[in-house]
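User: Let's play a game. I give you a shape written as C-alpha cells, and you guess the letters that built it. Ready? Here's round one.
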C-alpha cells in the first residue's frame, strides 16, 4: 500500500504488516487532480502545486496532522494507474483500505457552509427509520429537507458509484465542505444520510455493520441510482459490498462486468433475492435470471429476509441450475403449462415465524416437451405475493435450468427447407410444426443460411449441424446441375 506523508508530501510503500495508521480521503474527481506522476518525485511536485487539485491534497494532509497522523491515502495520487496490475490490486483492495483507515475525510466540493449553513437534524429526525423493510429516497416519498439539509442531500458525492463503499466501510468518517469546514461526523449525520441514501443508519452507517444481514437485492438497491465515469466501475465498485473479488477488465463493458460480479457472488451465497430485479427496458419479454446493472434493483429495496437453511443453486454450462417452487398460471393445465409463477426463497418479515409474503417472478418453458429449460418472461416486474399461495396444492418444486443469454428463436424439427439451387442468398423458409426443436442462439451469422450451388451425385447424405443445445438434421437428396446454369 502506498501512502503520502502529511508533511513532506513524499510517497512511500508499505507491506501489510508494517502499514501505519493513516487517514483516507473520499471525494469526487474534479479537474486538475493530483496524479501519481505529479507527485512521485520532487521535481514533479513543484509543478503539481500549481494545479487546482493541490488544495485538496494539502487540506487532507492538514486535517490528518490535526488528528496526529503522519500518513494519508488519496486515490488520485497513491495509485500508479499506468500499471494495470497495481490498479487492479487497488480496486480489489479498496473496501479494505477504507475499512482499515483511522479516519475517513469525506470532502464535498459543492457544499459551502457560508451559503447553505451547517446540515443538522432539525427537519424531521423522527421520520427516519432503520428497519429491514428499508427506505429508498427515489422510490418512497422523502420528507422535505430544508436549507443545509437540502443542499447536503444534493451533493454530487451521494450520486457516485465509488463513494457507496467509501461511506459504508470506514468506522470513523468526518464530512467537510469545499473550504474544509467540519460539517459533522457520519454518526452525527446518520439520520440525514439515511434520508438521502436509504442505507440503514444504526447498523450499517455507524461501523459498517454486518452487511450479510441485508439481502443481496437490498444492497444492490443502494447502488441503483449511482453513476460511474467508466461503465465497468458500476460492478467493480461493489466488490467490497458483497465481499468478493473479480479481475478488472476495462473494455469488457458494464453489462459483462456486472454479470461477472453476480456470478462471483453466487459462488459464495445462496440468497435468491439476487433474482428479484426489474428490467429497465419495457420492450423486453425474455431474459435470464441475472440482472444487467445495479439500476435494475432500484425497486428491490424492500428488506427481504432469508432462512438459515436454503436450497443451493449454481451456474452450469447449461444455465443457472436451481430448484424453485412453481405454480402454473391460473386457468392452464398444470401438466402442459408453459407459464409459471416461481417463488423465490426469501420473504418479508421474520423467517422463523413464517413469511406472509415473498417475491415471485414469471418463468416460461423454452422448449416444448422439455420440463427443465426455462427463461424469465415479463422481466419488467416481479410481484410480492402471499405465501403459501392460495392454490398450494398446485405448487411443485421443480429442478430447472435457466440460460442467461436468452436471445433464442424457435426452430421446427422437420420444418426447415433449403433451396440449394437458389443463387440469391435469401433466408430459408421455416414451416410451422407442432414439434419444436430447442431454441438456438441467434449469432451474427445465424440469421440467414447461405448454401452455394454445387453438383451432388445420387447419394443420401445426413449432415448434423451443432446448434447450441441441440442438433439440426438436414436431409440432402440428389441435385443435378441443369444445363442452363
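Assistant: Ready! My guess for every position:
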Amino acid at each position: 500500500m502506498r501512502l503520502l506523508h502529511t508533511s513532506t508530501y513524499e510517497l512511500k510503500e508499505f507491506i501489510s504488516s508494517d502499514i501505519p495508521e493513516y487517514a483516507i480521503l473520499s471525494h469526487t474527481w474534479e479537474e486538475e487532480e493530483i496524479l501519481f506522476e505529479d507527485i512521485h518525485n520532487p521535481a514533479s511536485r513543484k509543478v503539481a502545486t500549481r494545479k487546482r487539485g493541490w488544495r485538496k491534497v494539502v487540506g487532507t494532509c492538514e486535517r490528518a496532522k490535526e488528528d496526529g497522523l503522519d500518513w494519508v491515502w488519496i486515490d488520485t495520487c497513491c495509485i500508479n494507474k499506468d500499471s494495470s496490475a497495481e490498479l487492479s490490486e487497488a480496486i480489489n483492495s479498496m473496501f479494505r483500505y477504507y475499512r482499515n483507515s483511522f479516519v475517513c475525510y469525506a470532502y464535498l466540493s459543492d457544499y459551502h457552509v457560508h451559503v447553505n449553513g451547517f446540515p443538522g437534524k432539525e427537519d424531521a429526525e423522527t421520520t427516519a427509520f432503520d428497519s429491514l423493510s428499508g427506505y429508498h429516497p427515489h422510490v418512497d416519498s422523502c420528507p422535505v429537507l430544508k436549507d443545509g439539509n437540502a443542499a447536503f442531500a444534493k451533493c454530487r458525492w451521494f450520486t457516485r458509484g465509488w463513494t457507496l463503499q467509501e461511506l459504508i466501510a470506514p468506522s470513523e468518517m468526518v464530512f467537510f465542505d469545499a473550504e474544509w469546514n467540519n460539517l459533522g461526523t457520519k454518526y452525527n449525520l446518520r439520520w440525514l444520510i439515511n434520508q438521502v441514501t436509504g442505507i440503514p443508519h444504526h447498523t450499517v452507517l455507524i461501523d459498517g455493520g454486518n452487511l450479510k444481514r441485508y439481502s443481496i437485492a437490498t444492497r444492490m438497491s443502494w447502488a441503483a441510482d449511482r453513476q460511474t465515469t467508466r461503465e465497468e466501475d458500476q460492478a467493480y465498485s461493489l466488490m467490497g459490498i458483497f465481499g468478493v473479488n473479480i479481475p478488472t477488465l476495462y473494455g469488457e463493458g458494464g453489462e459483462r462486468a456486472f454479470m461477472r460480479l453476480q456470478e462471483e457472488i453466487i459462488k459464495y451465497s445462496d440468497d435468491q433475492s439476487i433474482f428479484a430485479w426489474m428490467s429497465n427496458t419495457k420492450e423486453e419479454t425474455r431474459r435470464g435470471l441475472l440482472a444487467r446493472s445495479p439500476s435494475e434493483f432500484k425497486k428491490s429495496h424492500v428488506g427481504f429476509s432469508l432462512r438459515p437453511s436454503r436450497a443451493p443453486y449454481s451456474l452450469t454450462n447449461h444455465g443457472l441450475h436451481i430448484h424453485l417452487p412453481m405454480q402454473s398460471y391460473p386457468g392452464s393445465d398444470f401438466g402442459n403449462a408453459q407459464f409459471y409463477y416461481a417463488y423465490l426463497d426469501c420473504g418479508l418479515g421474520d423467517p422463523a415465524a413464517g413469511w406472509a409474503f415473498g417475491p415471485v417472478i414469471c418463468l416460461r418453458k423454452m422448449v416444448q416437451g422439455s420440463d427443465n429449460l426455462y427463461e424469465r418472461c415479463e422481466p419488467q416486474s416481479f410481484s410480492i405475493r402471499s405465501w403459501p399461495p392460495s392454490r398450494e396444492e398446485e405448487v411443485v418444486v421443480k429442478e430447472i435450468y435457466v440460460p442467461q443469454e436468452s436471445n433464442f428463436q424457435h426452430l421446427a424439427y422437420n420444418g426447415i427447407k433449403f433451396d440449394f439451387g437458389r443463387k440469391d442468398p435469401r433466408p430459408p423458409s421455416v414451416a410451422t410444426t407442432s414439434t419444436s426443436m430447442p431454441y438456438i442462439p441467434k449469432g451474427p451469422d445465424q440469421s440467414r443460411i447461405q448454401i452455394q450451388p454445387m453438383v451432388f451425385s445420387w447419394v443420401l447424405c445426413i449432415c448434423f449441424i451443432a446448434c447450441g443445445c441441440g442438433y439440426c438434421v438436414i436431409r440432402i437428396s440428389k441435385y443435378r446441375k441443369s444445363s442452363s446454369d
